Amino acid sequence: MAALFFDVDDTLYDQLQPFQQAYNDHFTDQELDIEKLFMYSRMFSDQVFSLSESGAMSSDDMKIYRIQKALQAFGKEISPSQALAFQASYENYQQTIELSEQMTAVLDLCWDRHHELGIITNGPLKHQQAKIKQLRLSRWIAERNIWISAAVKAAKPERKIFDLAKRNVSQATNDYYYIGDHFTNDVIGASQAGWQAIWLNKRHHTAENNAESKDHFFQVNSEAQLYQLLKDLLPTR
């Protein structure tokens, strides 16, 4: 038996889709590269995540900062009120997210082979809980195996949140896998905690600081590749 924990955003669902829907509602420049804008917004969000988690930066200020800075990379300026209006739409569209058929198959594969599943995710408690509920993950994942950074005062890539997640796994195992899209938070964080990391790199990022030579991890570039990797890796009973 193995324990497999998943990231939520841009791993269990495609975070770009609600982002693009919100962009289309609020901005007229439809020629802009939305995927690149999204990647910039994630990068700027990462820059201030620890400030937001600690309360040194308000949630609204963080949301304003990341979309303003992302648009500035394309030479575009928006007001704080425009940034918050965009964020409100983005959060509304996140209430319609769904698992893809392929990701559903991934979770079914793990469940059918009797492996224990969980979530480790960074973010505000209620916001992440709402996404988990919308994705109907309770079908596969027990509440005891859901770990949200704001609730436990520890965030990826800190080892603490990975160590906490091990505590409630119900069956004895030495095989812990973590699947996520963020190289530093998910791959490096899990690897340094002694887990086997699987990088779901759908957006074809490059590994930072030539880290391939420092930590062993699996890399897949699609949900279909993830399914095949887990099918090969995970034993059946």
TrEMBL record:
Instruction: Tell whether NAD is among the UniProt keywords.
Output: no
Cross-referenced SUPFAM superfamilies, in alphabetical order?
Answer: HAD-like
Cofactor(s) the protein requires to work:
Mg(2+)
Name this polypeptide is given: HAD family hydrolase
Where would one find coiled-coil regions in this protein?
Answer: none
Which Gene Ontology BP annotations are present? small molecule metabolic process
Q: Which PANTHER family would you find in this protein's record?
A: GLYCERALDEHYDE 3-PHOSPHATE PHOSPHATASE, N-ACYLNEURAMINATE-9-PHOSPHATASE
Q: Which GO terms describe its molecular function?
A: metal ion binding; phosphatase activity
User: Which keywords appear in this protein's UniProt record, sorted alphabetically?
Assistant: Hydrolase, Magnesium, Metal-binding
